[in-house]
Structure formats: C-alpha cells, structure tokens
Amino acid sequence: MTYIKYAFWGLVALCLVTVSFANRGLVELKMLPEAIASALPAGLGWLAPVVQVPLFVALLIGVALGLVIGLIWEWLREAKQRSEASRRRRRIVELEREVARLKDEKHEGKDEVLALLDKTG
C-alpha cells in the first residue's frame, strides 16, 4: 500500500513539474483593475501593487489559497459536530464513573445473598 501512495505522490509531483516548465512565462498580477488604480491619489499607490511572477507560481498560489480557504470553511462548518462529540465524550466519561461507583456500592463487602436477606427482613 505504501508503494501505491509513493507512486501517486510521485505522479502528482511529475505533473506539477511538467505544468511548471510549460508555464514559465511572466505575468503581471494586479490588486485592482486599471481604471480604479489610476483613480487613486498618488499617496495611495501601495493599494494597487503590480507584481511580475511566472505563470506557474500564480497557478500554484491560486490552488494553495483555494485549499486553505476550503479547509477553513469546512473547519468552521463542522464546529457544531465537534462540540457535540466533545459533549457526548464528557457525558460518557461521567456515566462510566457513575456505573463504577454504583458497582462499588453494591459490592461493599456484602455477599449478594446477605444483601437480599437484609432487604426482605
């Protein structure tokens, strides 16, 4: 099974390297559209940076950002289920302690037959 996992990740790495070599051209990444960036006052030019990076870097950053946003979204969405599971675990521990306590009280040095005689007599 580990060989299959290594083969899979090797194939993923090979695909990423191939895509990276095929998309080495530089692209400009802009924070704001041209019309809005030109309307900004001179002192606020830092709000509209322009960066030149290889296309594969932009693609990989986009994929990574998508994964991070998706993971955070799912973590927030599943908060109710995690809190419910935690509450149920605490309740189970409480009940197990109570069962152990009741078993100890039942068998506090008395024989079951003597305990029955005490109840009837």
TrEMBL record:
GO CC terms: plasma membrane
Presence of keyword Hydrolase: no
Annotated transmembrane regions: 46-73
This protein's UniProt keywords: Cell membrane, Coiled coil, Membrane, Transmembrane, Transmembrane helix
InterPro entries to which the protein is assigned, alphabetical: LapA_dom (IPR010445)
Coiled-coil spans in chain: 76-112
UniProt domain Lipopolysaccharide assembly protein A: residue ranges: 51-99
A Pfam family of this chain: LapA_dom
Keyword match Transmembrane: yes
Protein name (record): LapA family protein
Organism: Histidinibacterium lentulum
Lineage of the species this protein comes from: Bacteria, Pseudomonadati, Pseudomonadota, Alphaproteobacteria, Rhodobacterales
